[in-house]
Amino acid sequence: MSDEPAPPPLLRTQGLVKTYSGEGAPAHAVRGVDLTIRRGEFVAVTGPSGAGKSTLLHLLGGLQRPDSGSIWLDGERVDSYSEARWAVLRRRRIGVVFQFFNLVSNLTVADNIELPTLLAGSNARQARSEREKLLAELGLEGKERSMPGELSGGEQQRVALARALVNHPDLLLADEPTGSLDSKGTREVMRLLSRFHQRGQAILLVTHDHRLASAADRVISFFDGRVADDATLGAGTGGRGVSSVLELKD
Amino acid sequence: MRATLRWAHADLRTHRGEALFIVLATAGIIVSLLLAGALLSYAANPWQRVFNESRGAHVWIHTSPSADAAVLARLDGVEALSGPYRTARTTVRSQGAEAAVELRGAAPDRSETGRPLITSGRWLDPGAAGGIVLESSLARALWAGPGDTLSLPDADGSSVRRLTVLGVADSAESPYRPGDRPGTGWVLPGEPALTGAPDGRTGQVVGVRLDHPDDTDFAVQRAVTALGAGEVTEVSHWHQARAEAQSDSRLLGLLLGVFGLGALLAAALAVTGAISTRVRGHLRDIAVLKTIGFTPGQVVRIFLIQHLAFALSGVVLGTALVETLGARTPGRIGEAVGVWQDLPGHTAVLLALPAATLLFIGAATGLAAWRAGRVPPVPALRAAAPVGGRMPAVARSALGLKVPPALVLGWHNAFGRRTRSLSSIARLALPIVLITVALSAWSTLDGFQNRAAGNGPAGELTARAAEGLKDHEVRTVLEANPRVAAAHPGVEVAALVPGQTGTIALRGLGTRANPYPFAPAEGRAPDGPDEAVAGQGLLDLLDIEVGDWVRMTVAGRPQILHIVGRAIEPENAGRVVATDLDTLRERDPSLEPAFYRLRLRAGADAGAVSTELASVLDGRLEIGKATSPADGLAPARGLVTGLIAVLALIGLTELLTTIGASVRERERDLLALKAMGLTPRQVTSMIVTSAALTALAAALTGTTLGVLLGGSLINAQGRSSGIGAGIAQSPPALVLLTVVAAAVLGAAAASALPASQATRHRPTDTLTTTA
Amino acid sequence: MRLPLLALLARGPAHGYELKQGLEQLLGAAYPQPNVGQIYVTLGRLEKSGLIEGEEIAQSNRPNKKIYRLTDAGREALHVWFEDPTDEPRVRDEFFMKLALAPASGMADQITLINKQRRQYLNTLRDLTKLAASEDRDNRISQLLIEGAMLHLQADLDWLERCQEELE
């Protein structure tokens, strides 16, 4: 317990609401969500499909506008930002990875990764060194000149992660990044996420894969547009569960 | 912005072909439009062309032989002089005709100013004495060409001097008008016909070229003052000459003006289509760019700048091509460009047309770029595939009946989506509409060739008798010729109508016993006494309609006529009324036929008949061709061909764009189709069928609309110029069918290559992020 | 059997036959029919443990009926049973019982139960992941065992999701 006031949480939302008016009845994708994410926290959001998890992620990344509610990013109120201002935020402070279509199809891998750095104002040399570092780290050296279409699914998502993290954003938003990958690809992506989390990266991961979710610090269960449960993992009963699971009955 | 440049650079690298296509398409369209502009200027300004090429003189002053014309050179505002030349007025006779001519003594090396432009043969040669060069309107009236011999009666009428025609030349002066103004013939200064002419008929003529053409009246005043008013016999103005030359080209001018606008529209639509297709192909990438952090403004800017750069390169390329190589294009087009570069409006058009196209393309690109900026950053939210239409029950049952699936699917592709299909059909139809209008113009010209002065298919030749011949003699001779089917007597007088200052031409043709075959466009031919047909110009002038009565005075005596029909009248701006000779004789019994309209038997050669008739009666019969509206429109055919070529190019661009777009959109569908069991050949034929059907619909719509539009446009122009509505002819059905077939085959051919390439794509490619 | 009976008694006192009917009604035809004798035996055991207490009621022309009531201890045991997250994934039948009986007993909320169970599963999953990482990679049998357990847990978590969807 220290006497200084706690730093503001990285991300805070209050009463976030988003409704889609499609044909027929309007669909309430997000109904009044209050959420807090601290720096370096790894939060997973699970729930059945159609519950509105992706919409929530889009709202947090400024990819869609909420109907009502507020979002604070590092103490700064951002929910009413224009699309252009959100775009600027996304350059340095928020990285986004989707299930597919993460890469610009007519740019090479190197260009794809360097583009955000150039956008954020670095010059070409800095961009190149960052890119080389990341590619080495991800085990993708030699693929600089490949086009996205030539890579496997797992490789593409790794490049996508690299692209999202090249500017060291405060928060990484990942929407089902392993949704279209096989088990090998999934493992690779999971390993990367954990590694970056250990270095202090805050991550919000939307997933329906519980195994992925279990790697997070917190798991938020999202049902029908609302937060049904917000569980902090690792503080629970622990060992007993494992042993009782693994006991072979005689 | 570095990121923007990086993306633009990479995009160019990957889509080199598309970028090149857009640049080339834009260049091609600019080339087409500039060529069309050149053709238009060329056609609508025949006089201007001649004037410029010949460095014409703005004023021609006829003086007495003793005037000191050289003093004019020192006047203010005078750039140069042509001449002065000695002149002599006399008559000249050729094989079939006679004309009044003003001989001019010209030097063998033609002066810089007011230099006649040789159109056939050659100029005067000091070594070839006894040569004459005729001005073209005179040459036409005399039916003479290089190598022919002309005879000039000597001063006292006793002997005859024979001159050989060395060449025919165009000049920017007022043309020959029988009975009104003599034609011009250039001879060597030493020519006896010139030097030996009687005093009363000699004179001088000098052409003055001014620094400031607008100052003509003032300059004329000063010139006359300088020469001495007593010395000046006649002054002619360049305005006059231009007005006279242009009276026939208004029809052409407006027709082509409409084309210019239509072509511009079609062209811009084609390029716009290419651009929208490109933007549509990038939609997924745009979403990713936005996610990375490109602001909407940046996205719009990228596309705008990129495409404006393409458009600019294309425009500059096209303009440069036309400026440097345009004059070397073979045929009329090259000629037109060469002349156009000297015309005053040239720079204006050269800058304005590309600027207008650039503006239009810029606006369209702006729209496409703005739409690109609005793409939501979430890739999945965009409606993934183009929304299709349900396959109608007809199609499904057709499939059940073993109609080839390629055909049915191709039909569904072409016409399934209402708005998309309609817009692509409309865009393809536009050039076809314009081509059909051009063909209508061609057919109208053909129609003119086959009819003379709108008064019926008859009258290919006009015969005038010299004084002293009796009417019945003439008629006997004319009718005796086996190749003449009928000879209708005719007379033309000038009539006045109360309240109008201009004269109306009143014609009496044929007799009641042997009526002239009028073929009115409206109403009927005159049948009984006092019935007449009138031209549109007259109806407009007097604000009357067919069926009204009109009162006019001829030489002080009244003539009342009942207008029962309207005829096509290209002469005198349509202010012509024609009736039969007997009606006119009621007013003036002493009227004798002044000429005969000869209708020849089928297959008779007009030239041969005219020579035969001229030789009878000691050559006192003057045979000429009856005027037809087509005379002034001869260059039109070449122009129409050029225009059709231009429009076909635009249509091709549009076609390629449409096909490229539809093939790209179908890429994802191809996988599903292959999974269903369609062979690659079936898939290719599906795409080709879809393209061919779209082209068919567009061609049918285009030709139909074109026929309707062309007819109404041509008639409107005819009516406004006084010639009269009803001149329009639709192109023959065979020609239209050819156009439709060409469009369909062209579409099929153009789609075959991209279709087979698309089907050869590996199926898995479409599932990756590159789709 | 023991705890379900306790849970039924939480509503109010009942005798053996009523309890049997209660179970049948609750679980329907899918569940094996409870044996009356087994019920009475279990009731006896419960009484002996002090979780319930019986009371004989005299009836006029019938044998005496024994009415059972939940004791404080019994109520407490029920509490503990509901509170305790169930360890073994194989015993989800037990969890299912809790879920099914929570509204009947009025002592626990279904959603809360689900959430708690989910937390338990997630934590176990996390621990299993750590275990797999620390375990010898070449020991295939143990890796497979862990993997199997994780897959079961995933399946259970998915099932929890379905439950929450249906019951909300």
Q: Can you tell me about this structure?
A:
The complex is a heterotrimer of chains A (250), B (771) and C (168). Chain A has a single domain, classed as 3-Layer(aba) Sandwich (Rossmann fold), CATH 3.40.50.300. Chain A is built from 8 helices and 10 strands. Chain A has helices at residues 53-60, 83-92, 109-119, 124-138, 153-165, 183-198, 210-213, 239-246; strands at 11-20, 27-37, 42-46, 68-73, 76-77, 94-97, 171-175, 202-206, 218-223, 226-232. Chain A has a 6-stranded mixed β-sheet, sandwiched between helices. The longest helix of chain A is centred in the C-terminal third of the chain and has 16 residues, at 183-198. Chain B has 771 residues and is α+β, with helices and mostly antiparallel strands. In chain B, helix 8 (250-281) runs parallel beside helix 20 (634-676), helix 13 (393-400) packs antiparallel against helix 14 and helix 15 (418-449) crosses helix 21 (680-720). The model of chain B is unreliable at 382-387, 452-459 and 763-771 (pLDDT under 50). Chain C folds into 2 domains: 1-84, Arc Repressor Mutant, subunit A (Orthogonal Bundle); 86-168. Chain C contains 7 helices and 3 strands. Chain C has helices spanning 2-9, 16-27, 36-49, 72-83, 92-105, 110-134, 140-167, and strands at residues 14-15, 52-57, 65-70. The mean pLDDT of chain C is 82. Chains in contact: A-B, A-C.
Residues in helices of chain B, as a percent range: 40-55%
Distance between the termini of chain B: 27 Å
What structural class do the secondary elements of chain B suggest? alpha+beta
Strand order of the largest sheet of chain A: 6-7-8-3-9-10
Identify the quaternary structure here.
Answer: heterotrimer
How would you sum up the global shape of chain B?
globular
CATH architecture of chain A: 3-Layer(aba) Sandwich
Major sheet characteristics of chain A: 6 strands, mixed
The N- and C-terminal alpha carbons of chain A lie at a distance of 49 Å
* CATH class value of chain A: Alpha Beta
The chain pair forming the largest interface, with residue counts per chain, is: A-B, 37 and 35 residues
Outline of chain A: globular
> Count the helices of chain A. How many?
8
SSE sequence of chain A, one letter per element? EEEHEEHEHHHEHEHEEH
**How many strand elements of chain B?**
20
Rg of chain A, rounded, reads: 19 Å
Could you tell me the strand content of chain B as a percent range? 15-25%
Structural class of chain A comes to: alpha/beta
Q: Number of DSSP helices of chain B?
A: 22
Radius of gyration of chain B: 33 Å
Spans of chain B of 5+ residues with little confidence (pLDDT < 50)? 382-387, 452-459, 763-771
